[in-house]
Fold these 2 entries.
Entry 1:
Amino acid sequence: RVHGDATRTMKFTRGLLWFALFVIGSLLHRLLCRPRWMRRILRRVAAKMYHLEAPPHHVRREVATIPFADGVLSRATVFFPVGALTEAEQQRAVVLIRTPYDRANIVPTAYLFCERGYVVVTQDARGRSESDGDFFPIAHERDDGAATLEWITQQPWYPGHGVVMYGISYMGLVCFAAAGSKHPALRGIMPVLAASHMYPIIFNGGVPALELVLRWSYLVFGLGTRATSALRRVYRGFIWPEQRYHDALNTLPLAEVDRLVSANGEPLPFVRQGLEHTSRKSPFWAGKDQLADLRDPTLPALHLYGGMHDFFLPEMLRDFATATAARAGVPGAAPVRMTIGPWQHWSVLRYTPSAVKAAIAFFDSVNGAETGGLDHDAASPLRVYVHGQSRWVSLASWPPPAVARTFELGADARLVPEAAPSTSVGAHETVALMDAVSDTYVFDPQNPTPSIGGPGFDPANAGPMDQRAVESRRDVLVYTTEALSAPIAVVGHAQVTLFAASSSEHTDWIVRLCDVSPRGVSLNVAEAVVRLPLTESVDLHGGTVCAVGERTWRLELQLGACAWEFAAGHRVRLQVCSGAHPRLMRNLGAGEPLL
């Protein structure tokens, strides 16, 4: 509704591809339960796809009931490797995967671990699928995770070597929550595209992540239960969402928007309460924002697995820095590692094979069985994929040491190399400068600037995408360099300083770095977002905002992480705008409460 016909066609084509892959996966999943010869073939095919050795074990499954601390019963499946275990396999921890998305959907992942000698427990979260109780996102995950860990340690089959946890997205959040319980049995966690804090994910720079909240709610609550056809859920969730979902993205005010994404028009308390309590200090966020305090050096081993174009990445990098600093020099502290690949949140088919392989190597190392599969070492605990160079680099820290290159916004939409070192500018000089040389645009909340690509939650509209449709709008400013004579590799964070003014004190500012090819294709690389006026809850990740006049600010913004090489012949471009609808909620300019 906010993109052109070409973008809609592209989204539909990608959606059809997703649907086809799901159908193929469903057929393979069904075949997995067929005769032994078919399972043997599929196991070897899966091993090739995931770059793993041929599976040495078959799998036996048992259904279990796990009580939580308050007596609510959850359902789980325990996977046991069949056959004689080697001495190293006997020392392995139990793998726990907790999910709100129906544990039947993670059977293939459980098989990949179990076929290689791990006992695996998959569990439906409270109030989801076959588990009893009421599901309220995040609220019970710490206590329920601790109760599950305790139940595992009391089972006769428990080998006594601890528990490790693996999970993607929300399943990664519950890994952090379980670590926050400080249960002694938990030896290591590998959260994939997940972070230990939730508030800055929901309020990015103070701007509500509208698409994330509503799409996740629609997928989890609005598409029915386990009895609903899986094909229908995938089709309506990823290919052709129902009209009510599109209506929700464009509905104002937000007071009843949750009813549009629920299954039967019922209210969703967590949506309403989350949008109502915009302050991070609100009691609502107690126990829901910080899932684990990574400043504690006694927490279990940690391997963060992130995507360069994922909305969780800024907080994941903060988690990496916090945990690394807390454990530095502490005898016996568990290791911290991180991997950042060229993925967006829904690049599941791209990152899952490497994530599972990395998890197996990581879990082996937790129990002291180094199998040679780790790509990290103590001196270089961070691995990052550099776009344009098509290679992985190992780093000791983030951001790595770098040489600064400075560009200035010039006349005629040019981005020019800095001619001389910048000097400090006073408030009166700033206002005079803006009166003399400035570029302007008008942001209309009734026709908000659309989002194309970026760290979004739409599988067909995330990651690097052609920005020309956005850049041609009158509410977007662009500044572009001449063609580069030599490549420039940016590994770290770009810093942008803007002097900006607005007719409304309630204004969003979005700054986006782009790579323009010789053919004119403009790909988004990184961005920063801030909603003014600032509140005490907003974390700019090192950026600052300083008022230098009436409704006039000096914005020093740190853009999101990037590892990108601008090739020779390409151009560097900077976008400035005030909207990214529907990924980020449009600013109406009145400063009224969201609900």
Entry 2:
Amino acid sequence: ATAAGAASAAEVKTYATKDVVPVLANKVGPFANPHETYKYYSLPFCPPSVEQRQDHNLGEVLAGDRKVLAKYEVRFRTNVDWRLLCEKTLSQRDILRLMKAIEEEYYFEFFVDGLPVWGYIGDVVEDEFLLGQTSRTRHYLYTHLHFSLGYNGDRVVEANVTTNPSKRVELTGRTELDTTFSYSVSWRPVNIPYERRYDRYHHTSFLPGAFEIHWLSVINSFILVVVLTAFLAVILMRVLRNDFAEYMSAEDREAAEDESGWKLLHGDVFRVPGQASVLAAVIGAGVHLLLTAFLLLVLSLLGAFHPTHRGSLLTAAIMLYCLTSVVNGYVSARLYKQLGGRQWVWNVVMAALLFPLPLFVVFMFVNSAAIAHGATAALPFGTVVVVLSLFILLAFPLSVIGGIAGHNTSGDLGAPCRTKRVSRQIPAQPWYRGMVVHLLVGGFLPFTAIYVELYNVFASVWGHRIYTLFGILFIAFLMLLCVVSFLSVALTYFQLVAEDHRWWWRAFGAGAASGLFVFLYCFFYYFNHTTMFGFMQASFFFGYTALGSYAFALMMGALSFYSSLTFVRHIYASIKTE
């Protein structure tokens, strides 16, 4: 229970004076590469004689945790001025490894009664001579740790670890070194309730600052979204009102055949698009991911996940995706049948694999890179089997069940107009009505609604910051949904006015294009807001951000499609056609 560090009543650990408080050594790694972590004892420290591995849940393994019981003997409310941990002779190879680690700013992570503590393993000092013309780099290894612990009654409520700069050894120029590792412990009473003992991690100094949400930027984005949406709504409603008035009056005139605009497309607007099976599959996969993301945000908003337990969020995402897979098959098979499709079984299989298959490919690549580097980010074989089993035994069968239900309960598309046998010729379009401009507008404007919060999400996922402002994220998510939905309607209307009835794929593409802008932002963030380095970290970053952008495109594309479909049904149901 102490290894998990959760605060539920079933896992609360109480201590009597002089009871042993377990100290777990987790991992080390370069501070700039948060996902490039290694087992703590992969470096030449003082390993225990018998390695006692701790149990990890699925989320902790996915987060790269590999906790083992350390040699530090810490007893409840018992101060230690100085105690020997071990005496160790460092070989030249050990010294070179430690020097490289210190240059890359390696940090370590321990857990004391489930409370995480961090610290650097050493320091680099530049000595300058002759007015800066000559310099010497010295590498120092910290050999003494001080545990500063706080208690409230019979529980541990605070933990911190510090290094002593006066107790360090220089590694530079050594071929062999005899050194002594030691530690000290101090306890103090703290008036912090046990339930709030994780609050301090939101403002810890080791993590690079608490989140400084740029409220002004968030408000500016919100105002921009509201003004843009209101502006387009007013214009679109006025134009539609004028169109309806014109078309209704034209029904009583003999010159009705001289009309132009979207009404002329009533015989083609519901013509089945090309690659209907693929379209239905991407829509089903997008709705599935959108539902998963929404439920995950709602649970986060309700406080279901503790901010310091990143693994719980990953576990919940996997379980929610599997349990909601029935939606994927249902939406895809239902839409495919409405479009006149017959091979609905293959359509369901395609929809079920549309996201997991790219995920598996990316995972195999980055996991191979992690294995080659010996990093803890490499998932054990047993964990891979568990995740695959969840998909094969839970997610895929639910998708099939949903597909069967969607196919058997589906009616027709509900088109208010009959489709003509011969397709209407599409007039030549100016460049600003082309596909490229359509996608650029459809992708860029939704991106402007979320780019501020996107930075904070990236700083949490690809950094050491702890994200806690799920309320702000939920607001940004709702703004995004509104912008994507309304912009899709507007772009579809302008396309129909230009007498182009091929709106199906464009409606999906208008929302999906925002995923491209998110992926382009990934490059900007990597080169301007991080100091990441190395092939492994780059493969993790670009591999999983590409996958996230792909999921984002599917979600927004599905929302955009259904918004346009609802709009098209409504306007053509409001006019009389022959």
